[in-house]
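Morning run. Coffee first, then this:
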Amino acid sequence: MDKRGKESSFRLIAMVMLATLFVAFFWDQLEFIKNSVDYVLNPSAGFLLRWNLEIGMIIIVFILTVITTLVQKYATDQETLKELKKEQKEVQKEMKKYKDHPEKIMELQKKNFESIPKMMKLSMRGIIFTGIPFVLFFRWFMDFFEAAGNPKLLGFMSWFIFYIVFSLIFSSILRKYLKVV
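And here it is:
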């Protein structure tokens, strides 16, 4: 299998991130973006949130987490990521052996740091596919919850904290189940 398709350049990631920032920044000025997203999300996600705020939000968070997990699994080179993580664990074990030898630890840390850009490049590929849609979703969430008076979910959490907490829970379960690095 050709692995070049699952690697991405930092330039492409940076371009997507800039486009994402552009969308987020001009959300209120570019009505066609806001109205288009509202047209799609209000009847679907809005319906779920109006039906039952907590359960609707849990369903939405679960769906978004499934999407991001599947994108991460199939848009990245999982084999190479597993190999790099395994190498990092081995280097960390060696570092524990040589904890009294600072020069050896520095050498091992340098070796460990060399793999970070490659891992980041491989891991960030999912952002290319999910960056802009997620910003659109989050901007819509901001507007929806602001219009609803910023209710507290479960009585004490903002929608954003609720999203983060449940996303972490669902993500850890899905990553383990789907064997995603």
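The mean pLDDT is 85. Good start to the day.
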